[in-house]
Amino acid sequence: MAKQNVAEMFVDILVRAGVRRLYGVVGDSLNPVVDAIRRTPSIDWVQVRHEEVAAFAAGAEAQITGGLAACAGSCGPGNLHLINGLYDAHRSMAPVLALASQIPSSEIGLGYFQETHPDQLFRECSHYSELISNPQQMPRLLHTAIQHAVGRRGVSVVSLPGDIASQPAPEKTAGTALVTSRPTVRPGDAEIDALVRMIDEAERVTLFCGSGTAGAHAEVMQFAERVKAPVGHALRGKEWIQYDNPYDVGMSGLLGYGAAYEATHECDLLILLGTDFPYNAFLPDDVKIVQVDVRPEHLGRRSRLDLAVWGDVRETLRCVIPRIRAKSNRRFLDKMLKKHADALEGVVRAYTRKVEKHVPIHPEYVASVIDELADEDAVFTVDTGMCNVWAARYLTPNGRRRIIGSFSHGSMANALPQAIGAQFTDRDRQVVSLSGDGGFSMLMGDFLTLVQYDLPVKVIVFDNSSLGMVELEMLVAGLPSYGTTNKNPDFAAIARAAGAYGVRVEKPKHLAGALKDAFKHKGPALVDVVTDPNALSIPPKISADMVTGFALSASKIVLDGGVGRMLQMARSNLRNVPRL
């Protein structure tokens, strides 16, 4: 029996850690590892067209399964392309192991062809990034990298020179048990005692929830009922907390809607549950605030805290619920629920009714029809920008659906690559990519990956021929839009030329039928929907500075001869502007 080399041992350890595929693009320094995968039936090599896609796909797989996923890039430019997707995975707390293959070990530091130093380059977007410089080092270093990725929920990077990958593996290696799940973290007794006192003393309690409430839906609902608290959420908390929630008051932040903003500002105790909500301008500064988070570095970095509680949300609430006094006064809760209902009726649903004849198609209407037709356990991947807004406001979670996006890193072009990783976890589960035309065209080459592997991903392109969110940012800043227009092809025709199903929709009456046909199609499908470029997202709370900026940009557009466009914009958004 031939002696195992380092690459083969590397692959064996990945398999033991639960990795079932490695996403990447082949290259000479990666060849020993790819060849080892070729000969290992329990793991697959997934050939993508761009390494950035490999990292996004691995991050999405990790978020779907909760386990370790992996990607790889060849030396120099190859692994450097991974960096954007790895940043996203790391900030999404997705356990990903990245293999950054390296130039020959004897040439490192000598300006060799394609030389970079990945062990240094990836340190900011990883918990662990190290170079294997000796075969004896590999097993322990890879084990350590896996423990960091799984235990701390994020990225680990292992740099491996191709010549070392080809060398004989160490003969005697101790079998090391690998971490496969995280422990629960219970707060200290002093923090629990203090939290109970603050809840009992408060008259109006609001809960604001993030992705840290995953797995704690029942406890959050029980807690909300006991203290009669409205429950708002951040975008990353939507899929975990919005469904089956009679206390829901919507979402706060730049993409927000409903009464979440009012609920967080009119309470006398705000409890942040598992959220690292980045927009401190939307958080109050004149109420008591408690934050519960399993990652202590998140505590207090967004707002002033009256109490910091280090612990899992579910475990914390299990400790607190039996000890607090039940509240009977629902006045504050009912007031917030009424405000939320009014907001939904007057703003969020405005574009989904009586729009059958509106051309170009309202993007809100597209999102609402997708929500209605998609499977009950569908996975939605969502591009950054306006697609985030439509997904946040119109996709309905139910405890079985998943909504994945670049919600912390905010990268363009994430939806298609993430859909690839999500679909590989289960070919029979519906995966729908909500892609903006700007994001889709940025990494459009990997639509060919769907075709190559016959992945049945459904790509819905919101084709408004513009970078809509950037345009809104310019308007709010008092600037006329510039450099935001895209001259797009017929994306459906490109899909058909690639060998996939493709259809273009320009009229609302054709939308539902086109989506139904695409969803029924057995393989990859693309629906290119021409949408209204004048539909803008309006935050639930508009500041005077925002209004001034918007008015200033409007006047500049008018002075530049764009009055027709401003009229169209006013008509598109009149019902979507909250009263000041």
Automatic annotation (TrEMBL):
SUPFAM superfamilies listed in its UniProt record: DHS-like NAD/FAD-binding domain (SSF52467), Thiamin diphosphate-binding fold (THDP-binding) (SSF52518)
EC code(s) of this entry: 1.2.2.2
Q: What is this protein called?
A: Pyruvate cytochrome or ubiquinone oxidase
| Protease in keyword set | no
The Thiamine pyrophosphate enzyme central domain, residue ranges:
192-318
Domain Thiamine pyrophosphate enzyme TPP-binding span(s) in chain numbering:
383-529
User: NCBIfam families from the entry?
Assistant: PRK06546.1 (NF005114), PRK09124.1 (NF006591)
Family listed: Belongs to the TPP enzyme family.
For this protein, the record's InterPro entries field holds: DHS-like_NAD/FAD-binding_dom (IPR029035), POXB-like (IPR047211), THDP-binding (IPR029061), Thiamin_PyroP_enz_cen_dom (IPR012000), Thiamin_PyroP_enz_TPP-bd_dom (IPR012001), TPP_enzyme_TPP-bd (IPR011766), TPP_POXB-like (IPR047212), TPP_PYR_POXB-like (IPR047210)
Residues forming the Thiamine pyrophosphate enzyme N-terminal TPP-binding domain are: 5-120
Q: From the Swiss-Prot or TrEMBL record, what is one GO molecular function term?
A: oxidoreductase activity
Keywords assigned by UniProt?
Oxidoreductase, Pyruvate, Thiamine pyrophosphate, Ubiquinone
